[in-house]
């Protein structure tokens, strides 16, 4: 008898890239295409933490209680309002698994984090996308459209990264509060993706005490510089977290992650200092780009957008194989812009020097 997979997995549009095609990363180029943390000071600290891990960390199953208590202190909630996940991606998936059944409506923005669309297809949801448009030469999200669609479709999930990626845009807290109130009326879970916290340091976490319709997803990949550890967490009312525990694997994350986080959380100040260094690098880079006459989009994540205008072809040629970045976007809201992850000044200065050489040569 032939196998009988879930119908949603037979969707020809559902495709995941194979890891078999990946190759070891070259250390020579400057990697500014994945919004990772390239702060060498934090890297060295994290490496020292790695060397502190006990010998049995790789041989034993995780005991996460202490890490949960430290994380609760950092986030400002009770441990019962937390669950560790495989990156913020894992928190997002738990929300889909817990609430979305085939045929349910899910609203998400576009363009946005790619996994929202993937999970909609994976779980057989009817995806309603709210498209960013271009207004005053920058991405614009019509919040009235979100509210109208909430009333019309009464979706199971509303997915709102804040800030969003790749746009780097935010929704003001007052507007988010109105949207959450509307979600409570429509029986919708607001999945607030705070992957870039604290690069953008406003948070909706305190609202979990007044609403069980809110789930906040976070990661240790960006500000903490732990993308390779693949660990994040969800914050929500205890009754919602209880649902997530029902669908998690035997252990939320591995022992290396648990032991590492327990030590990293004791060094919160080092993470915050790294964020400051990266923001300084971002400011330096953007100021230089403006001084060259290039357009720069204001963003709230650890990345920025630059419009090189007539210099685009020459700049891209100069940076080829020296700096990896998102060269162009197909979406009209970002058309003409290139995206660079940002890093401390010492890193961004190398990129500026390459671009500056090109600008000077073109203007001769």
From TrEMBL:
Residues 66-346 form the Aminotransferase class I/classII large domain. PROSITE patterns: AA_TRANSFER_CLASS_2. The keyword Transferase applies. GO terms for molecular function: pyridoxal phosphate binding; transaminase activity. Pfam families: Aminotran_1_2. Its cofactor is pyridoxal 5'-phosphate. Keywords: Aminotransferase, Pyridoxal phosphate, Transferase. Signal peptide: none annotated. The keyword Acetylation does not apply. Belongs to the class-II pyridoxal-phosphate-dependent aminotransferase family. PANTHER family: HISTIDINOL-PHOSPHATE AMINOTRANSFERASE, HISTIDINOL-PHOSPHATE AMINOTRANSFERASE-RELATED. This is Histidinol-phosphate aminotransferase family protein. It comes from Leptospira stimsonii.
